[in-house]
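[step 3/7] inverse_fold.run input=structure_tokens len=258
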């Protein structure tokens, strides 16, 4: 997959900064993410050919998907905030203003967006797992690579990139000595368990018993709630639109049969 990155920040981010981040994230994808997931991509900075970031014509697209870097969360001249164009081409937005509100480096946000775009380009995959209480029943969880651990990052050179979950995360059993996320940090209660979240993270799900969507987060996790509240006010951001799209009952399950 080739992901085009287009800088629409109107001078807030210089192309040299974006290129520096792209090189680090390409390294993350190639050396850290792809060996675990067998899914990869290459980011390329493309020239901005339009004043407005309108994904439907796809004039800036030179690959298989596109990510727009934008400064304001809801610019008046940005047209449309969906997960794919009318031609089925995946796209997303990274807003520097939203990253500031979340107290997150925009490069970490870009890393987060890239990994989730690689894994689920159309934002329509769900995975069957245990009920949100962790005891009885089942639920269908979003196929998100970074949301459960999104408050954690690490450096490639001097560029911060987002932590991500590993394939064992989406399995119901507790594999002995299994590793469920790349960093494997220990928090109160231990390291990350399957279908659970680390501090500051969350994961959306659909509960077939109640017929309603829900959001899994740690009890009393103010950081996670802050993230949810801020993103709820920024429906233009791709992460928010994914949340709303996945709130519907699943019509098909993930390719692994779950």
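[step 3/7] decode complete -> sequence:
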């Amino acid at each position: 997959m080739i992901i085009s990155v287009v800088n629409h920040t109107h001078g807030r981010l210089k192309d040299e900064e974006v290129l520096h981040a792209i090189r680090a994230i390409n390294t993350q994808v190639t050396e850290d993410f792809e060996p675990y997931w067998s899914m990869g991509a290459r980011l390329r900075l493309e020239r901005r050919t339009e004043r407005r970031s309108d994904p439907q014509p796809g004039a800036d697209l030179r690959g298989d998907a596109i990510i727009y870097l934008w400064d304001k969360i809801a610019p008046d001249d940005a047209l449309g905030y969906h997960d794919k164009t009318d031609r089925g081409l995946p796209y997303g937005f990274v807003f520097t203003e939203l990253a500031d509100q979340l107290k997150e480096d925009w490069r970490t946000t870009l890393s987060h967006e890239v990994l989730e775009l690689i894994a689920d380009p159309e934002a329509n995959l769900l995975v069957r797992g245990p009920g949100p209480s962790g005891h009885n029943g089942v639920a269908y969880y979003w196929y998100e690579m970074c949301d459960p651990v999104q408050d954690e990052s690490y450096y490639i050179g001097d560029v911060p990139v987002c932590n991500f979950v590993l394939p064992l995360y989406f399995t119901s059993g507790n594999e002995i000595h299994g590793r469920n996320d790349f960093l494997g940090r220990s928090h109160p209660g231990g390291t990350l368990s399957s279908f659970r979240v680390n501090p500051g993270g969350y994961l959306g799900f659909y509960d077939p018993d109640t017929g309603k969507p829900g959001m899994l987060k740690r009890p009393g996790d103010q950081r996670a709630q802050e993230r949810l509240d801020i993103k709820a006010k920024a429906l233009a951001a791709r992460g928010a639109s994914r949340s709303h799209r996945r709130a519907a009952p699943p019509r098909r399950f993930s390719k692994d049969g779950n």
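[step 4/7] annotate
Confidence is low (pLDDT under 50) at residues 75-83, 236-258.
The first strand starts at residue 2 and ends at 8.
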